[in-house]
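If you are new to this repository, start here. Below is one unmodified record pulled from the training split, so you can see the exact layout before writing a loader.
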Amino acid sequence: MEIKIDPHTLERAEERGTNESEIKEVIHTGFAIPAKYARIGRAKVYDFKQNRHNKYYEQKRVEVFYLIDGDKIITVTVYVFYGKWEV
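And here is the target side for that same chain:
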């Protein structure tokens, strides 16, 4: 299925610390998370082990929300959280 990444999603990705490659990876291999408004949510935890805004974080969790329109996946937005998770 083709993935169309909305320009809004790419803008948020840049601000929040992820990229197009990770967004696609989350859609393909992430785990399901709850979503509202008939959207689909998937998330994946990545090792980060670096500083962001002058604070060190072990991991980041990328959450992608999207919808399916025919044979296309269309992203709605992406969130990135920093911290440590049990996987």
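Two things worth knowing about this chain: Residues 7-16 form the longest helix (10 residues). The chain has one domain: 2-83.
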